[in-house]
Design goal:
The chain is an all-alpha fold. It is 78% helix and 0% strand. The protein has four helices and no strands.
Length: 86
Amino acid sequence: MRRALIIGFVVLLMAAVLHAANRYVDAAPQELAEYYVESFTEDTGARNAVAAIYLNYRIYDTLFEALILLAAITAMLHFFEIGGKK
């Protein structure tokens, strides 16, 4: 049980460091943002810019974020053995 707590803490710490480092990375340069705003209708056919960005430009990013979240939850449930032997 102690080993699972240490591994869980390390994983949580790594996630926090990656999240903090992501704030300093310019994920969308100004040119790319301007391109999205100017040409989302022609590229996707959507009337809403937010829907066009999430559902057309960034769909794989969104799906993989959900997959990573599911993997993290599964790992934590495995380490803490929730629902297992009591």
